[in-house]
Amino acid sequence: MSKSTSDADAEEGRRERKGAEALVEGLKQEGVDTMFGITGGAIMPVYDVLYDDEDVDHVMMGHEQGATHAAEGYNTVTGRPGVCMATSGPGATNLVTGLADADMDSRALIAIAGQVPTDMIGNDAFQETDTRGVTMPITKHNYLIKDEDDVPDTVQEAFYITSTGRPSPVVLDVPKDVSKNTTDAVRGELDVEGYSPNYEGHPRQIEKAAEKIEEAEKPLIFAGGGAVISEASPEVRELAMENDIPVTTSLMGLGVFPEDHELSLEMLGMHGTGYANRAVTECDLLVGIGVRFDDRATGKIESFAPKAEVIHVDIDPSEISKNIHANVPIVGDAKNVVGDINEAMRDRDSPDTESWLDTIDDWKQKYPNEYEQDGDDLKPQYVIEQLDELTPDDTIVCTGVGQHQMWAAQWYTYTEPRTWVTSGGLGTMGCGLPMTIGAKLGAPDQEVVCIDGDGSFLMTVQELTTAVREELDFTLVIINNYYMGMVRQWQELFHDERYAESDLPHLPRFDEIAEAFGARGWRLEDEEDVEDVLEEALEYDGPSVIDAIIDPYENVFPMVPAGSGNDEFIMGKGSQGSRIS
Amino acid sequence: MSTDTPARRLPTGVREEEVPRAVDENEHTLSVLVENKPGVLSRVAGLFTRRSFNIDSLAVGETENPDYSRMTIVVTGDDPTVEQVMKQLNTLIPVIKVSNLTDDESVDRELAMVKVAASPEDRNEIMQIAETFRADIVDMGRDTVVIEASGDTEKVEALFDMLRQYGIKETVRTGRISLVRGEKSTED
């Protein structure tokens, strides 16, 4: 190419650079400043570009799964797509769990995977795997970029698809030669013909919803993760508070509505409150906002909200009437739709919910969440309550998966959206620590804590090295019962106390593990030390790990046994539970 | 808890008191316009497997515009299931349009070939049957004939029924392809 031509191209923003540079350039055009990953053979050319780059902060993780969860944590607290990267083969397959997790919980995430050179694809080359094929069912879309000229457009498309409509991961599979070859291509106009998410609810459906709400005697709002993602929390609060409608949330919806408000029934479902589960069973109108009626929320379908007509607001048409038939389906962005319903309600009367709220108050008296300090053993609920006391309202709480996760959902008070980071749909043990890392990097000015389990923590413990290197200030509390506690609970209740492979008697000393990584560690066994240890750990400027040794037989109550209706919950304290119906 | 209210939902999530839609299983012909790109067939087929939907037949080929392919997919299911199939297909980025042709005036065809045992004594009879169905003999061996037939599914089935008495050795079918009749386009 002659000098004059390349000058002319430069004026149009065209310049020859490697595919890898075009890729990083694309990330920057999308505003990426933080990404998580691990290098390796096929992805080296991209890391070579990042080596000199001053705009993108790449966080080297301990395992590729950690990179995906960190990207999830980052996305959940910031609302911006999380970005993670790995090499081909095992690097790419290690992304799979996190991609499936992000897909289930609708998180915007871009995963970049290296691939063997295009002329070796299909030959079972070293570290080759069919990343596009493997990730197809657990992503919103994925690309194998076979030509370096396609890099700019593909990056643009990927970010557009992952972050609009119902968010879900998009994978970019980038062969090594595509990274190394040069291209002068720049991004063109965005054109995705088969994809056009609908953001505005149909006006007739909005009116119909408002009419149903006005006429309802026992209305209930059921808000979920979709309301968090669409930033619909203010609209949900207005709908509830202006019309005296009680609100329950799914696990993913914690924080959408302040749990310290009198209209809050907190979480429903398998480990939801007794009063939320009574309310959903008795309500005559259920307003589902950004929820997908997951089986852990509905219990047995036959007895879920059996007396209610259902208004279902969701941006994904395929969620409407998938599990629960919607009488008033409204496809659109929750913020817009609920805002429009609020607008429509201004010309209408609020429903008369006085006696409904009285009934709910009775249930609140009758079925409070309870625990008791009945022996020498430390109670997990007490630790979490104290953590709640000692941390500000906008504290971000991350968790792993299991009993500790349910106690964290029940006993910490959530008042703001994007302060709850967990694995809901996939139930991925081990997500806690890496999500905490991503959350802290996404919200460096907020207090970040992780309530983890002993089994969960051990699965991704290597990420402590990341936390120490990045000098991240967070506090992680391991609710340690030396069991896979949720499995133990099910074995106790439904498998005649046959504790097959759920006991973990040879766990390491997690406080010492933390110290060995260069973090601070505490071991907590006595109730009287809880406040002091928590304060010390929260005070410490760096990763703090508290190994809280709790009553190993403490169960999560209330509990709706799998396959039962939501009104057939077991109330209880400690390890004792009794059916209420 | 009080038991004076027997309200419940069906496993499909519909309340019993609300008249459920048809739960009869019917055959539906879906016409799916997709981008003509690598991997699209795999995405569509994978979706059916992943969601436990059954494909009766699937035929795919380029359209009048080489940027697109048209898939004709025959599925059997009740109305809510087929609606869910269509919605899920629409979540795929390369899927441009999904149409359910079952209630439309559409022309449906499939191509089939059948190899039939044909002893010299039976051969004339078999050829007469083929002629009645406007099918062609495309290969003739000492003891077999191969018949090519095109038509709607019922016609092909009827032909097979007639030939069964002689001994069907092998069959192959393209699966249904469909277009809407008249001025209307299949994607309208």
Topology (SSEs and partners):
The complex is a heterodimer of chains A (581) and B (188).
Chain A lengths: L2 H9 L5 E2 H11 L4 E4 L6 H9 L4 E4 L3 H15 L3 E5 L3 H4 L2 H9 L4 E7 L15 H5 L5 E4 L6 H13 L6 E6 H5 L1 E2 L19 H13 L3 E5 L1 H5 L3 H11 L3 E3 L14 E4 L6 H9 L2 E5 L5 H4 L10 E6 L13 E4 L2 H12 L8 H13 L13 H11 L5 E4 L3 H9 L8 E2 L10 H11 L5 E6 H6 L4 H6 L5 E6 L4 H10 L15 H8 L2 E5 L5 H10 L4 E6 L20 E4 L2 E4 L2
Parallel strand pairs in A: 2-3, 2-4, 4-5, 5-7, 6-7, 9-10, 9-12, 10-11, 12-13, 13-14, 15-16, 15-17, 17-18, 18-20, 19-20
Antiparallel strand pairs in A: 1-8, 21-22
Chain B lengths: L25 E10 L4 H11 L6 E6 L5 E10 L1 H13 L3 E6 L5 E12 L2 H13 L3 E5 L3 E8 L1 H11 L4 E6 L3 E4 L8
Antiparallel strand pairs in B: 1-3, 1-4, 2-3, 5-7, 5-8, 5-9, 6-7
Outline of this structure?
The complex is a heterodimer of chains A (581) and B (188). Chain A has 581 residues and is an alpha/beta fold. In chain A, the strands form five sheets. In chain A, strands 3-2-4-5-7-6 form a six-stranded parallel sheet, with helices on both faces.
Molecular structure report:
- The complex is a heterodimer of chains A (581) and B (188).
- By secondary structure, chain A is an alpha/beta fold.
- In chain B, 26% of the residues are buried.
- Chain B has 2 domains: 26-100, ACT domain (Alpha-Beta Plaits, 2-Layer Sandwich), CATH 3.30.70; 106-178, Alpha-Beta Plaits, CATH 3.30.70.
- In chain B, strands 5, 6, 7, 8 and 9 form a 5-stranded antiparallel β-sheet that branches. Chain B has a 4-stranded antiparallel β-sheet with strand order 2-3-1-4, with helices on one face.
- The N and C termini of chain B lie far apart (52 Å).
- At the A-B interface, loops of A face α1 and α2 of B.
What distinguishing features does this structure have?
heterodimer; A: 581 residues; alpha/beta; Rossmann fold; six-stranded parallel β-sheet; globular; disordered N terminus; B: 188 residues; alpha+beta; Alpha-Beta Plaits; 2 domains; five-stranded antiparallel β-sheet; four-stranded antiparallel β-sheet; 9 strands; 26% helix
